[in-house]
Design a protein that fits this description.
The complex is a heterodimer of chains A (347) and B (430). Chain A has 347 residues and is of the alpha/beta class. Chain A has 17 helices and 13 strands. The relative contact order of chain A is 0.18. About 3% of the residues of chain A have low confidence. Chain B has a three-stranded antiparallel beta sheet with strand order 2-1-3. Chain B is mainly α and 430 residues long. Chain B starts with a helix and ends with a helix. Chain B contains 16 helices and four strands. Chain B folds into three domains: 59 residues; 134 residues, no CATH class; 218 residues, MetI-like (MetI-like fold). The chains are: A alpha/beta (347), B mainly alpha (430).
Chain lengths: 347, 430
């Protein structure tokens, strides 16, 4: 390489890099947050990028908690504009935001996601109740006299005589996952409350109750299968006796091989989750920095695209991807709040 | 005298006897030892071929994609010839699908019919009209990508014998697809979109060009930084530096750095380049810097090893005829050490090409549709793209994941081949 080429290359490199240092403006929307909302937000972003003159937003999948951490770090182009979340913002996160100058936040609820317990179609569908789920998966359960004992149940028949005599084997997400948080809150807590001893405990000492209700057994009946839901799907196909816990969209995509278990008499179908009769469903959100709406080009258009009927409506493209839409009245109310950029109020 | 030699002979005879007795056992041990080695080679070849075959079988399908032939009338009433960018091209796609099946009515049925073609079809028509505006007002036969569910069905990934409730395509859609196939209006063709597009959430439109370009930018910067710095460091440490406590400390540290888990470099990059220097997240500039830090120790160690391999007689001869130390190094030692240094650099680069962990921390694990055009455009890299696709719910992404792995492997083989070639070309023997 001659000296001239080296100098030319260095100049080229410098010319390419230098504009980046200032970072005075940003021409794309920067989104972080939940891996559950990621598959939906990315579809909207892609549609938006193709149909408007703006660049396609950049979406990082950081998890809900990680998203809030980045989102609340401050106002300015180096911080994300939007964070996706599979749960509502916590008041502690709201306080962090406020401390760093992120004052006006717009909360946008986008729909629901169902959590399913599915198994291979090679064996029959299970008919579970929340109580069965707790009795099968809790680390400690109350015995007849109300004393807490380590979970002795080995087969589903031990849990409930109407269930088959098959070993309890559940593949589910690890504690870092939002799906796990939601599963523990929706299924385990509800199930725990069905035991008289635990219901009494809840009335007396809610912290002690939560500690028991949120504690999943670690003796091998519950296997932490990692964040990759496709892996769980593959393992379920290989092992007809195992049950997997994951988001509804993965069941929807693999409906030829897997079936959802009935929970309290309801099977997880699109209609049942949308209608609210299936218990294990949670709302999904994204949060927007109001201060950024006027600064970053295309923010208003992105919000309009996400809250349009063709995206989140009953027949919208998000429902094709497995997002369960909200009732029409609620969609209208949220869309109106988004259009007027009404900031949320922390309780 | 006689008895003495006799005794000697018998002693050596006994020794030979003992050697002979043990000979069979030693030969057997030797044969066994060779067999173990051969078995180890065979076993690793077996694993490698299982890996290759499974990836190849899974991914080969992604290079062919199902397309549907549409008769599209570029209606001037729908598309304004003055502004072809803003027409409702989706309506054109729907209209031509209806034209093929005029007996389909009813909202639900029509929805199923429209679902046969990819949502990318409308954008394809728009790009066609933008490229040649004289299309407007004409009727044209266009091959557009089919929806991923249709693609999976045609490829036989979905079982069509299952009852309707267990399939993602309805009975009606099956009948339409069969009719289109019989008429030759559905065909599997080479999937150029896979190589030309950026990422997409629609599997039939998703491509690896964005990730490949991201890898090219990041690795280009890595090479530009780590190769000269690494070689300079290696030359100084090996040829000029005094052997004292400080240089020994540096040497130990470099060896340790080569063994540090790569995610630590990602954390360093996050703290220094993004939080302290204020560089943007998710850009190949930061990715390249982080990967350069990661590959530096490898290059320095390989560089020093190949400098050590140059015989001292070369240096002594050069110094003997009056060359300065710099001339000795630049004119004689470095050219001889170059093949080894290049090999080290390329192996370091190949390692960097397959790295995702440090990039996770600096935000390069992200959904990015637009193909990056420079060092400061957001982008991902090839292994990250594989990771993202492997985690997507759509079934069609499974084969795309394998196909992307094949592309990554092709790059790795190419880089390793380059290393071998360079070594062959420049290697000199004494």
């Amino acid at each position: 390489m001659s000296k001239k080429t080296i100098v030319a290359l260095a100049a080229l490199l410098a010319a390419n890099i230098v504009p980046g240092f200032g970072q005075s403006g940003r021409d794309h929307i920067n989104i972080v947050g939940s891996s559950t909302v990621y598959p939906f937000a990315t579809v909207v972003a892609e549609q938006y990028g193709k149909t408007t003159r703006f660049k396609t937003p950049k979406i990082e999948s950081t998890g809900s908690g990680g998203g809030f951490k980045l989102f609340c770090a401050g106002v300015g182009v180096e911080h994300p504009d939007i964070t996706n979340a599979s749960r509502a913002i916590k008041s502690s996160e709201g306080a962090t935001c406020a401390k760093n100058g992120v004052k006006d936040i717009i909360e946008v609820k986008i729909g629901y996601d169902g959590i399913v317990l599915a198994n291979s179609k090679k064996s029959g569908a299970l008919r579970l109740s929340a109580k069965d789920i707790f009795a099968a998966l809790a680390k400690q359960i109350p015995d007849g006299s109300g004393k807490m004992i380590p979970n002795p149940n080995q087969t589903w028949k031990d849990v409930n005589p109407s269930l088959p005599a098959v070993k309890i084997e559940v593949l589910g997400p690890p504690p870092t996952s939002g799906t796990r948080d939601a599963f523990v809150e929706l299924a385990m807590e509800t199930g725990a409350r069905k035991f008289q001893a635990l219901a009494d405990l809840r009335a007396k000492d809610e912290k002690a109750f939560t500690a028991i209700a949120h504690n999943i057994r670690e003796d091998g009946a519950y296997v932490e299968a990692g964040e990759n839901d496709n892996l769980i799907v593959q393992k379920l196909q290989a092992n007809a006796n195992a049950l997997g816990i994951f988001g509804f969209s993965f069941l929807d995509q693999n409906s030829d091989k897997l079936q959802g278990s009935y929970v309290d008499g309801v099977q997880p179908t699109f209609e049942a989750i949308a209608g609210g009769s299936y218990g294990l469903s949670r709302p999904l959100f994204f949060y927007v920095k109001k201060a950024h709406v006027a600064v970053i080009p295309g923010m208003k258009e992105y919000l309009a695209e996400f809250t349009s009927e063709k995206a989140w409506g009953a027949d919208g493209y998000l429902s094709d991807k497995g997002l369960i839409p909200m009732p029409e009245a609620e969609r209208k109310a949220v869309a109106k709040a988004v259009k007027e950029l009404t900031p949320m109020k922390f309780k | 005298m006689n008895s003495l030699t006799e005794g000697k002979q018998s002693a050596s005879g006994r020794a030979i006897e003992r050697v002979r007795r043990g000979l069979g056992r030693r030969h057997a041990a030797e044969r066994r030892f060779r067999l173990y080695g051969l078995a180890a080679v065979c076993l690793s070849l077996l694993f490698l071929s299982v890996l290759f075959v499974s990836i190849f079988r899974g991914g080969i399908g992604a290079f062919r994609q199902t397309f549907i032939r549409l008769e599209v009338f570029f209606d001037p009433d729908v598309i304004d010839a003055g502004d072809p960018g803003s027409g409702d091209y989706g309506a054109l796609v729907k209209r031509s699908l209806r034209g093929m099946f005029p007996d389909v009515t009813g909202r639900g049925e029509l929805r199923e019919l429209y679902a046969l073609a990819s949502t990318g079809a409308a954008f394809q028509l728009r790009d066609m009209a933008l490229a040649s505006p004289d299309l407007i007002g004409r009727k044209e036969a266009v091959w557009v990508p089919a929806d991923d569910d249709v693609d999976m069905l045609v490829k036989g990934v979905y079982d069509r014998r299952l009852p309707e409730s267990g399939r993602r395509t309805s009975d009606r859609q099956l009948a339409w697809i069969d009719r289109l196939e019989a008429e030759g209006k559905i065909a599997r063709r080479f999937n150029s979109l896979f190589f030309l597009n950026g990422d997409s959430r629609e599997p039939e439109l998703a491509g690896i060009r964005g990730a490949v370009m991201g890898s090219v930018y990041a690795l280009g910067l890595t090479l530009l930084l780590s190769f000269p710095i690494g070689i300079a460091a290696a030359v100084y440490l090996e040829e000029f530096a005094p052997d004292n406590r400080w240089t020994r400390l540096i040497e130990v540290n470099i060896n340790n750095l080569a063994a540090v888990p790569s995610i630590v470099f990602g954390l360093l990059g996050l703290a220094v380049f993004i939080n302290f220097m204020g560089l943007p997240r998710s850009v190949p500039l930061v990715g390249g810097l982080v990967l350069a830090l990661m590959t530096l120790p490898t290059i320095i160690i390989a560089g020093r090893a190949s400098l050590k391999a140059v015989p001292p007689s070369i240096r002594e001869a050069a110094l003997g005829v009056g060359a300065s130390r710099m001339q000795t190094v630049l004119h004689h030692v470095l050219p001889l050490a170059m093949p080894g240094m290049l090999t080290g650099a390329i192996i370091g680069m190949a390692q960097a090409l397959g790295e995702t962990a440090p990039l996770l921390m600096i935000g390069m694990v992200a959904f990015i549709v637009d193909v990056p055009g420079g060092w400061t455009d957001p982008s991902t890299v090839l292994p990250v793209q594989i990771f993202l696709w492997a985690d997507s719910p759509e079934r069609a992404f499974t084969e795309r994941t394998s196909a992307a792995i094949m592309v990554l492997l092709a790059f790795l083989i190419l880089m390793n081949a380059a290393a071998v070639l360079l070594r062959r070309r420049f290697e000199r023997r004494y």
